[in-house]
Amino acid sequence: MPVQVVRHLDEALDALAAMPRAEPIAGGTDLMVEINFGRRRVSDVVAIDRVDELKELRTGREFRVGAGGDTRIRVGGGVTYTQLLTDGAGSVALWEASRTVGSPQIRNAGTIGGNLATSSPAGDTLPVFAALDATVVLRSREGERRVKFGEFMTGPKRNVRRRDELVLAAEWDDAGPAQTFIKVGTRNAMVIAVASLAFVIDAARRRVGIALGSCGPTIIRAADAERFAQGWLEERGWDRPRRPTEAERGELGRLVAAAARPIDDVRGTAAYRRHVLAVIAARAFDRLAVMT
Amino acid sequence: MRIRLRVNGTERSVEAQDHESLLTVLRDDLRLAGSKNACEQGECGSCSVLMDGELVCACLVLAGAAADREVRTVESLGTMERMHPVQQAFVDAGAVQCGFCTPGFVISTVALLRANPEPSDAEIKEALAGNICRCTGYGKILEAVHRAAGQRV
Lengths: 292, 153
What we know:
The complex is a heterodimer. By secondary structure, chain A is an alpha+beta fold. Chain A is about 35% helix and about 20% strand. Chain A has eleven helices and 14 strands. Chain B has five helices and five strands. Chain B has helices spanning about 20-30, 85-95, 100-115, 120-125, 140-150; strands spanning about 1-5, 10-15, 50, 55, 70. In chain B, strands 2-1-5-3-4 form a five-stranded mixed beta sheet, with helices on both faces. In chain B, helix 2 crosses helix 5. Classes of the chains: A alpha+beta, B alpha+beta. At the A-B interface, helix 2 and helix 5 of A face strand 4 of B.
C-alpha cells in the first residue's frame, strides 16, 4: 500500500525502516504542494498525523527538573501551530512565530516537526529554535539522536535527518519572558517572510540568542550582535531593565544586518532585507532590554 | 488504493490514486463540487472543509491519509429551501459576487462561529485570512459574518 496510516510511533518507525524511499506526511502543507504541482514523485507515504506520541507538549511546571531547577520545554514533532497557540508554546517567541504561520487552515494542519523537517530558510519557527539554542530530537528504530538546531539545518531544505528518522520533538531550557519573534512580509496573513528575526535574552543564563530567517541559505545566528547585546547587558546589569540609546539600538541593528546573507528574489531585494533586519532587530532590542 | 471515509454523515468508499488529494476525491469521485479547486497550495481557501471538526484545506490532505476521517463539506450545511444560517446571512448581506470563493468562506465562517459565536471585526479578519475573494467583496463578507453571529451554527 502506497499510503500507510500509522497510529503509534513504533509503527511509524517500522514503516520508515521497511520502505527506504518513504516520505512521512503530517499536515501536508509542504509535501502536498509539491505533489499537487508534480514537483515531486513520492512512491510511499507514511501518514503520521495520528501518532499520539508525537503530540506531547510539556511547557509548564510539571516538567521542572528538581526544586528550583531549570524548566525544560519539550514540544512533540506532531504538535500543530493551533495546538501551540491554544495550549501554550513554552516560549513567547515560538508562540508569536506560530501565530504568523499561514492561516487557520494551515495552522490546524502544519506541525513543528514538519517545519523542522522541511527546513525552509523561511520556516517561521526555525529562527526561534536557533535563538533558543534548541535541541532537535530525532528517532529511528535504531534509537534516538539529539542534535542542536545549529547542526540540524545544513542548507535550504536540507538537514541531517535520515530518511528512517522522525522529528520526535524539539527541546530547550525555558528562557524566560524576554524573547520575541518579528516577521516582515507583504501582508499580515498567509505570508512567507521577506525577513524574520528571533531575539532571546535569557537573563537567568546570561545568554543572548539572535537568529535570522529568510536571509540566507540557512537560519543565521547573528553572533557579533549577540556579543554586543551580551556585553551591553553585562555592563548595565542583566537584572536592571534599561532602554538602550538610539546609538546602541542602531549598532545592534547594524551588526544584525551585517550577519545576513540575503539574496534578491520575488519577495524582496537583498538590500531591503538588510534594511528590514536592522529595523526589526533594533526594535526587538528596545522592547526586550526593559523586560529582563 | 481503496479508502473508506465518512463524508457529510455517510460512509463512503472510494478508489483513489496514490497522489490524489482529498479535494479531488470529493470533487471527481464523490461528485461534491461545492469545494472548489483553485490554487492547490493552501493559499486561497476555496477548498476549505471540516475534517474531524477542524478547518483544513482539502487540497493539502492526501486522500489516503484521510482514511476513516469524518469530512464535512459545504453540501452538508443546507439546501436551497432551507439554507444554513451562515449561507442565509451571505445571501442577505449580498456577500457573493462571482461565487467561486463563497463555499470556502461559508465553511470557514461556520468554523469561526462554532469557536467564537460573537467575533469582532479583527477576529473575523484573522479567522478568514486563509480565504481569498478575488472580486474583493470583503466588506459584505464581514457584514455577513456579523449577521450570522449569535445564531446557532
